[in-house]
Amino acid sequence: MNTQERWIGESFTPDDIWQHRVSKVLHHQQTPFQELYVVESGAYGKALVLDGRWQTCTGDEFLYHEPLVHTPFVLYGQPRRILIAGGADGGAAREALKWNDVEEILLVDIDRDAIEACRQHLPQIHQGSLDDPRVRIEAADAFDVIANTSGWDVIIADLTDPIESGPAYKLFTKEFFTHCQNALTPGGFFVNQAGSQSPPLIEPLARTAKTIASVFRDTAIATVNVPTYGSAWGFVVASDKPFEKRPDVNQVDQLLQRATSSPMRMFDGQTLLGILQSSKLVRDRIAAESLIYTLSNPPQIARH
Ligand code: SPD
User: Fold this and answer.
1) What are phi and psi of 266, to 5 degrees?
2) Cα separation, 219 vs 147, whole angstroms
3) Is 113 touching ligand 1 by the criterion CB < 6 Å?
4) Which of 84, 64, 97 is nearest to 259 (CA)?
5) pLDDT one digit per residue (tens) for the chain, 304 residues
6) Is 89 touching ligand 1 by the criterion CB < 6 Å?
7) Ligand 1, atom 2: nearest CA belongs to which residue?
8) Which residues belong to the active site?
9) Atom of ligand 1 lying closest to residue 54 CA
10) Does 60 contact ligand 1 (Cβ within 6 A)?
11) Which of 42, 49, 68, 277 is the most buried (most CB within 10 A)?
């Protein structure tokens, strides 16, 4: 083996590492909040890695950002005001901007350096969304911002995993989800990236889902497959308006055709119907979970 080769290895458990070859480091920085790399990898293109965790890459980010955004948008109808917590890479904002009725997107990410690094090095992901006139960016703690705002049709929590002493763990608590509920318009939707569905790693997803279900009237899990995350991934979708878990494929396709202006690569009515059907494992694990994350008992995934 060529000893000059560089690899980024993400340790999912103390016994498992998922590795990607790095052909070039484009940016490396210790920001006030996290260690940040933007790298050129092989099969999956350019990638953002924060605190040793692969966040997003040009090769498969659409498998994450399209369902993260379009699932709550379709369930809501035609949202106008969107708040994104996190989302420094601009991928979620890019997808939101595909909807013709979107008037305003507030993107709140705690790490200004991460936003600037993504703006500079990952134009393939943001595609100009970070500089679109409908997008307002605040480098601030989303917990505080959302506690003091209202009138959002959809809130998207596009966060890093809740690792110990990382910047995101407070945003996986009942207190944060309650602020989100209060900040939504009637019938508004909340979605967050809630974690892995791999059997040894599923606990944070089950607890996050249970915590969100303790706040909102109705919830569902959307299951996505993002190859660089190493396992099936779960989003929790939530609203105080009861919503359809088996949406009509044709109606969804008609809505997308009417209300959006740019094509999607993985999302349509059939995809939405599919991703809303979670496995028995996930349903059973959430049903059996009793722990609710709070500020006094937040998630703290170990850094391996
Ligand atoms: N373990 C990886 C989870 C990454 C979630 N954040 C992705 C940010 C993409 N906009």
Assistant:
1) -125, -15
2) 21
3) no
4) 97
5) 455 789 999 988 889 999 999 999 999 999 999 999 999 999 999 999 999 999 999 999 999 999 999 999 999 999 999 999 999 999 999 999 999 999 999 999 999 999 999 999 999 999 999 999 999 999 999 999 999 999 999 999 999 998 877 889 999 999 999 999 999 999 999 999 999 999 999 999 999 999 999 999 999 999 999 999 999 999 999 999 999 999 999 999 999 999 999 999 999 999 999 999 999 999 999 999 999 999 999 998 876 6
6) yes
7) 55
8) 158
9) 2
10) no
11) 68
What Å distances lie between residue 289 and 80, 284, 292, CA to CA?
35, 9, 9
- Domain range 7-57, CATH architecture: Roll (2.30)
Which atom of ligand 1 is found nearest the CA of 92?
10
Pocket perturbation via mutation, ligand 1, pick of 12, 48, 56, 127 by most ligand atoms within 8 A of CB = 56
* pTM of the predicted protein model: 0.97
Which sign, positive or negative, has the C-alpha torsion 63, 69, 73, 75? positive
Q: Helix or strand or coil: residue 191?
A: strand
d(CA 15, CA 29): 28
Distance separating the N- and C-terminal Cα atoms of the chain: 25
Q: Are strands 16-30 and 81-86 parallel, antiparallel or unpaired?
A: unpaired
| Domain extent listing, the chain | 7-57, 62-288
Largest CA distance in the chain: 59
- Side by side, the strands of the sheet bearing 35-41 are 6-13, 16-30, 35-41, 46-50, 53-57
What architecture does CATH give domain 62-288?
3-Layer(aba) Sandwich (3.40)
Does ligand 1 come within 6 angstroms of the Cβ of 196?
A: no
What is the whole-number distance in angstroms between the Cα of residue 160 and the centre of ligand 1?
5
Please work out whether the CB of residue 234 comes within 6 Å of at least one atom of ligand 1.
Answer: no
Indicate whether residue 271 lines ligand 1 (CB < 6 A): no
